[in-house]
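Section 4.2 – Deliverable D4.2 (structural model, holo form)

The reporting period included a commitment to supply a predicted holo structure for the target in complex with zinc ion. Inputs used:
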Amino acid sequence: MTDGNHAGAPGTGRFEPYFKRLSGARKPVFFTGAGVSTLCGIPDFRGPDGVYRDPDAARMFEISLFDADPAFFYSRAEALVYGGGGVKPGPVHEALVALQRAGLCAGVVTQNIDGLHERAGSSPVFAVHGGPALHHCRRCGDEKTFAEIQAIRGGVPGAVPRCARCGGVYKPDIVFFGEGLPQDVWLGAEALVAESDFVTVLGSSLVVQPAASLPAEALRRGARLAIVNRGATPLDRYADFLADDLAAFAAAAEAFLAT
Ligand SMILES: [Zn+2]
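Output (C-alpha cells):
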C-alpha cells in the first residue's frame, strides 16, 4: 500500500523517507523507551541525567530491597511513578495517537512504567515492565487502584501505603529487578510485533532485556526497523532509518499528518 497524498509532505524534513515507508507498512508498531518520557520531565533511567546515576536510585526497583525496606522505594518514587510535578503526555505520546487515528500505528509496546501512552489515548499499549495503575499487597494480595493508593498515602511524600486488612505493604505492578515480566502483556506484545513488517524504536537504547529482544526478533523475521534515539543502539546497523531527535520526529509526524 502506498499513500500518494502524503508523499513529499512539506515540513517532514529528513523524516520524509521514514514517513513514506511508514505509509506503505503493514501494521506498523512502535516500541518506546525512556527517551519518550524525558520530553515530559520524567527522569531517564539511563540517560545523562538518569536516576540510575544516583547509586541509591539504582536500587529502588530491587524486589528484595523493597520487601526489606519499602520506604526506600516510596521515598524515591514520587516524580517517576506518582506524578509529582503533574507530568502529562508529551509530543511523542500525542504523535503516536495521531498516527493511530491515521491508520499508521497498530499498537505500542513500551518499556516505560509511567502509563503516559495509555493516558494519551494509544491502544493497544503493551507495557512490558508493568505500571502503577494497580498495586497489590505483598502479604494478602489485596488489589488497589492508583487513586486508592494515593488516597491511602494521603499526599504525604514518601508515605508507604499499608493494607488495612493485614498490615502488609502495597507494591505497584511495576516489574522490579528480580521479578518476571507479566506473561499476558509479554505475549500480547510478541503477537503485535509478529504481525508487523515495520517497527519503529523511539527513545530506547535497546539494552534492557528481554524487552529489547522484540525489535531484534522482528528483524530476524524480515521486518524493517527505524530507530529514533539519542545515542547508539546495538541494532543501529540493521536499521533502514536512523535519527536522534525525538522532538523533531514528533514535529515531522504532525507536519506529515497535516498534509
Ligand atoms: Zn494485605
